[in-house]
């Protein structure tokens, strides 16, 4: 299991997940840079993702939906802030209301920094999500973000082993 540590800090409004992969940072970067690869790991195994738009560049937007086993779609978006290939990128991640990817004002948006660094012959990935308030962080914790994100990240090992 790649995920080695998960911590959340309500005072700092952060959720941090650390994962180690037996692949170089450039290979982990490629998972996020290629929408077809990203679809295989964004979202837990029971809710596969489909990226409709994928612009991993500063100012770019990535629109996606996850599909439940019953066929229900859950929409989301990324608004890319910065890119430092292959070391990482930052983006805002939010929930959308519909297939037009209209922002859902009732659900939290997080600012995320994903970083990839060489570590023990592979890559240490650090995923930090920051929320506007402790209440927003608690809301996503209650929604199961730790379990869902961990299950999603743990899928990367199989992908990079191919």
TrEMBL record:
CDD domains with a match to the protein in the record = SRPBCC_CalC_Aha1-like
Q: Which family does it belong to?
A: Belongs to the AHA1 family.
Protein known as:
Uncharacterized protein YndB with AHSA1/START domain
Q: Which residues form the Activator of Hsp90 ATPase homologue 1/2-like C-terminal domain?
A: 23-160
Any single Pfam family the record assigns to this protein = AHSA1
State the InterPro entries in the record.
ASHA1/2-like_C, START-like_dom_sf
